[in-house]
Description:
Chain A has helices at 9-40, 42-45, 54-97, 184-190, 192-198, 208-214, 223-234, 253-260, 263-269; strands at 248-250, 273-282, 289-296, 305-312, 325-336, 343-348, 355-357. In chain A, strands 2-3-4-6-5 form a 5-stranded mixed barrel. By secondary structure, chain A is α+β, with helices and mostly antiparallel strands. The longest helix of chain B has 36 residues, at 188-223. Chain B is globular and about 65 Å long.
Amino acid sequence: MAHSHAHSEAETENTYFLDQLCTIAVGGLLGFTAIGLYMKGWLTSKFNLVDRFHIPVLAGGIVIIVLVLLRAIAVWKQAGQARAAKAVDHQAHGNECGHDHGPGEKCDHDHEHSHGHEHSYSHGHEHAHSHGHEHSHSHGHEHSHSHGHEHGHSHGHEHSHSHGHDHAHAHGGGHDDHDHGWAPWQYAVLIIPAVLYFLELPVDGHNLTKLNRDLQEVDLDPGVANQRLAFAHVAGSAVLPTFKKKGIRHLKFSDLSVIASRKASRDDFEGATVVMKGQFRRSERKDNEFQLFRVMVNCCGTDAITLRALIVAPEPLQGYQMMEWVEITGEMSFQQIRGTNQYLPVITLPTMEGIQRIAPPSDPNRDV
Amino acid sequence: MDQQKVLDLIKDFSSIVWEAFPFIVLGALIAGILEEVVPQQAITKFVPKSKLLAVCLGGVLGLVFPMCECGIVPVMRRLLRKGLPLGTCIAYMMAGPIINLVVIGSTLIAFGQNEFAVIMTAWRIALGFIVAVVTGMLVEAMYAKHGDSLLTRLARPQRNAPEKIHTDEPHTPDVHPAEERAGEKRPLFQRLGNISETALHDFKDIMVFLMLGALLAALAKLWISNDQVKQLSTSYPALTILAVMGLAVLMCLCSEADAFVAASFQTLHPSAQLAFLVLGPMFDLKLLLMFTRVFRRKLIMLIIVSAIVQVFAYTMILHFTWQSLGMPLRFAVE
């Protein structure tokens, strides 16, 4: 079905090249951003991305840069060919039409295009006409020659006849009023990560909204544990001798969460002396209590799980900052969270020497 | 929205984007190579003639071609163009992120590498396969009725070439002439140029919708937490299962990490954990937006409804039969 398009060849060709240039620019920007994030170590500090993703992000950035370079060279060549083909085409049109086009004069009338030449590519792709909605109409219109893609553009093949065009004809789908040439909004979305990179956003550390929510203080059932601790305090010990266990156990938070979930393991660890490392968060209820926590990340900050224990010190705590890294040595017990069937580990420090400041680990996502 | 929430939104958005970035690049690169190197209909030679077998093949392709759910979309779009049956593609897309060695391994580790972990991993694989195959067959039935109108134009396999007016070449009705040249010898630089054009186009196309999905997921996380799910009572299994399914859709976790999150829901019945593990890799906010680059609305609705209904039904059945089947419970009502 041949029909006339009310379009300018020069405009549509410009749209194609503009689209290609924007793709190259945005791709390059994202590639450099990926490499920059890796080099600065921001993948961990800002996004909590675990180690095994760091090299893939770097590799992805390098691959995109390579693709962008290849594409830039190809587009450069296409642009040269397009200019040359235009000059030849212009001469040919002048001969066929039986009239002369003066130098620089546009050939803006309709005539059939001769297509006795080959399309020597096999790409099939749409050129950036995404609208974020469905096209329920058919585009099977339209071109009396075949491209294998929706809106033909010159692709560095023998003819430079561009086809990205404004639809001045009816689609039957109410889309007459928009241009299918390119979609600038996509580029606005795509540059967001690069803009954030140059603004050095986000800030380092955890998602504080989520962390504060996860570390909200809970009401604990008094139960047996509190009574036991009260008797123990009278007796001058954190834990009654009948509950004490020999030896010191170094625990990780990931182990502790499993231990807390089973009665048999809770009983096994009740009264045990444990050593644990984590980050400090002061209690709002009592000045001699704080939460010790770690954030367990398996891929990135989105899947972060906050693991915690309540630490009870013999005296009020002074001088410790939120998120500061500490190591504690104390005696383990478990208390049920009121209204649930979950148990919170509670570690009682026999003396203030039971809490020591430590240096932050090089990889906070390891050995949680 | 206060400043801290905005910063946390940016953090979650960026985490999802940069975690998915290498897989989108990989998927786009593979798509570019497929488009340039693989001749039309070459893939169909390896696909069984029986639709059911073809769909089942799609369900286990992830064992051979492991891809995360983000990277699979651009690859699948090109496979569709090259003639891989739609049902097979759908089955691969849905089951591939679950039935692959990396995710199988991470599921085992997340649940503790014991008997319970083996059971959970086995059920995740089984349910993932069944949901994917059933959905694939439903899609095949719909495709028989509606044809290529279910797909975006870019994803449609090239069939009857448009009528050619100004050529002396013989008319080949089944394969587009340009597509026949895929696999032919061409100068290396031309090939690389073609691959880069397709790869960059697909990268751009998919990345945009990944970012939009990541933004939606980050917004959802501001108001929804894992703990809210943990508090759900197991007295209402239907409600619990629906809630975790909703969480899986909103959280947009990658299929490697979701096992650890599901394992942390220690108070939930294993059936609810499985609902989270099976639905998440098949359908979430970012996948929904990426689907629009391949499928039309009708097909997207079928995929979503099929996945949700099946996951809910199977996990409800599991909930009521779990203990009678003699399987252990791992959660903390002990």
